[in-house]
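thread from #wetlab-drylab

HS: before we spend reagent money on co-crystallization trials with flavin-adenine dinucleotide, can we at least see a predicted complex? here's what I'd submit
DV: go for it
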Amino acid sequence: MTLAQISVLSSLVALVSAASTPSFSPQYDNVSATCARIAKAISSSSGVFYPDSTQYAADIAHYSEGSTQNSTCSVEPGTTEDVGIILQILGRDRTPFAVKGGGHATNQGFSSTPGVQIAMSRFSTVQNNPSSGTVDVGAGLIWDSVYEALNETGVGVVGGRVSGIGVSGFTLGGGYSWKTNQYGLSLDNVAAYELVLPNGVVTSITNTSGDLWFALRGGSNNFGIVTKFTLVSHPQTDVWGGFVVFDGSQYGALSAAVSNFDLTNTDKKAQLIFTYGFLSGNVVLSLNPFYDGPTPPQGLFDAMLAPPSLSRDVKTRSFSSLVQSVPTESVGTRQAYSTVPILKYTPALFQAIQNSSQFWSARLTAVEPDTFLTINSEPFSDALYSYSPSSPSAYPPTRDLPLTPLNIDVGWSDPANDAFMRATLAQATADLHAAAVKLGQAVEDDFLYGNYALADTPVDKIYGKNVERLRAIKRKYDPGNVMGLAGGFKL
Ligand SMILES: Cc1cc2nc3c(=O)[nH]c(=O)nc-3n(C[C@H](O)[C@H](O)[C@H](O)COP(=O)(O)OP(=O)(O)OC[C@H]3O[C@@H](n4cnc5c(N)ncnc54)[C@H](O)[C@@H]3O)c2cc1C
Ligand SMILES: *[C@@H]1O[C@H](CO)[C@@H](O)[C@H](O)[C@H]1NC(C)=O
Ligand SMILES: *[C@@H]1O[C@H](CO)[C@@H](O)[C@H](O)[C@H]1NC(C)=O
Ligand SMILES: *[C@@H]1O[C@H](CO)[C@@H](O)[C@H](O)[C@H]1NC(C)=O
Ligand SMILES: *[C@@H]1O[C@H](CO)[C@@H](O)[C@H](O)[C@H]1NC(C)=O
Ligand SMILES: *[C@@H]1O[C@H](CO)[C@@H](O)[C@H](O)[C@H]1NC(C)=O
């Protein structure tokens, strides 16, 4: 931001904070009136939609049905100015709202609301800028579309690993990618954010912007609505990898091979996800090997691919095809995620993971037989947080502790079991964490990845010592707490 922009900004901030002291009567109880006011104020590039329209259905839809709520109306803003107008109306009316990128949040209310659902889908441009080594990406896109647009351009970006994930929530929360060993998190590879501040002002945030640069790098939806990400691009060739499924009897061989990989591999182009799954009473193991080049060095993945598999799709392919190769359709219609931050995947830790899966899946399936439970091991290089030495970020709160986000995922279908499933997942997570601490592969004083964390996680567990600074930035740019009307991890 230039000095002139900063001064314009501070006078606007002052104006809006004066305006948002309670001289307006709250319209909280009449969201329909807010919808009507928005419809009247926005340009023809944007639209407001109501139940029974196909746009509304698409706007409120989420990956996990349990994250969807029936909102009073949905809004598809088409310009940054309209996003600003919408935020001002919502703030003035004190109307609850939600911002949805790709809709993959597994916590209800994080990108859904009974109030006004904002869907970012009209921000859908991908523009490759070879001269600056960046790619502009609209905030309503899913990574699949970005990879498709970049297919055969020779460049790639640091984004989602499987199909369907939104660019916005992923990047604003952190972003563990297939390229994280080489380039860090997604947030370490943003050159600029186009941000609509809670007061409606449209601004560009870069590494010379100070506070908001720090805050947006992990601060999710607390500081406004992002409409565009300018991402740093990297050379992209064809890659190697895919998806392999094994039955439970191969766990000994596979976990030994994955453990050996995590403890000894130094090739940063190589990564993997290894999953212990329990599905309707059966153990199913899966492996996603990845190499950022057409062929992995000989021997690197051999021990993992040697055991007999139930299905196997591993080959040299485009990055886009690699991301599409991992099935992500959910088995149950409702899902919850949690995380146990792990240092290294030792053989003893893999035994604890197996025990945890067996113990807790028995309890889950006793209540709903078709429940699934997956424990996803996501080993990364110890260098994963070393790619932003001069620029601190909201997340991770420390870059000195190479914690990797093991992910536990529970899926079920009956809404009546929501509370039970989440409580059981929380207990399983705490137990596995305790077991990992005992084995020296987790620490008490750790931090959790917000994009995998259960909704009741305290914010200081995600942002650590950064919470106070983030609260101060929040008070400065959102004095009326407009973004507090949207759900998520609130500062
Ligand atoms: C199948 C699956 C696989 C996953 N794999 C990975 C992985 O490999 N690596 C990883 O790091 N994470 C992964 N995740 C977690 C993922 O990062 C989060 O679910 C993330 O929130 C998805 O972003 P989204 O835009 O789809 O989410 P949404 O649900 O749309 O949004 C999530 C949060 O971001 C906010 N938000 C969205 N758009 C904006 C915006 N434009 N401006 C301001 N705030 C906004 C929302 O309000 C909400 O609080 C995975 C999740 C799933 C379900
Ligand atoms: C709410 O707003 C709508 C649309 O403006 C209006 O038709 C309705 O009468 C209002 N209801 C109440 C209870 O004020
Ligand atoms: C949303 O409304 C529809 C139609 O009234 C209803 O069938 C559905 O159960 C509601 N969904 C939620 C999540 O409340
Ligand atoms: C991507 O490019 C490859 C050639 O490298 C081509 O075979 C494939 O069809 C393209 N995929 C998409 C999704 O465009
Ligand atoms: C800020 O970003 C520019 C361009 O993206 C880069 O050249 C510069 O090194 C960065 N500065 C810092 C302190 O990270
Ligand atoms: C297996 O996990 C359960 C639940 O976390 C725990 O109570 C038990 O002690 C574990 N058993 C072993 C052998 O680790």
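DV: The longest strand covers residues 270-279.
HS: ok that's useful, forwarding to the group
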